[in-house]
Amino acid sequence: MKGISPMIAVILLIAFTVAIGGVLSIWITGLTTTQTQQVSNQSSSQVKCTPSLMIDRVDSNTAAATDLINVTVTNPSQNQIININVSVVSGSTVTTNASVVPNLGSGASYFITVGNYSTLPTLVRVSGVCTGLPVSFTCRPAYSCWRGT
Description:
Layout: H1 6-48, E1 54-60, E2 67-74, E3 81-90, E4 93-98, E5 109-117, E6 123-130, E7 133-139, E8 146-148
C-alpha cells in the first residue's frame, strides 16, 4: 500500500491552514466589532451623563438648637438620574435618606430638608444612577456650594 504523495500532503496542509486562518479572521472581526460597539455605547452614556448630579446649595444654621440641612440638587445632564440618595456626615454619624428625591429629569432641580444636627456636618453627598452609571456629588463646608449661617 502506498501513502499519499508529498505534493498532495503539502496542498492539504496549506488548505487546512488557510481554512483555520479564515475562521479565526471572521471570529476576531466579530469580536472586535462587538467590543467597539460596547465601548462606543458606554462612552456615549458617559458623555450624556456629564456633568451629572450636582448640589447647587447646602444651607445650614449651626446657631439653631436643631440644625436642619437644606439641600438643592440639580441634574444638568442630558439623561434622567434615578435612585437618588442624600447622605449627611456629622461627626461619626452618617444619615442617608434613600430615594427621598424623585427621579430627576434633564435640567430638573429638587429641594430637600434633611436631619436635625447639633453640630455642623462635615459633608453632604448625593448619589444616583444615570443610564446604569453611578454618579455622585459631594459638598463640604469649605466649598462654594455650602452656605452656612
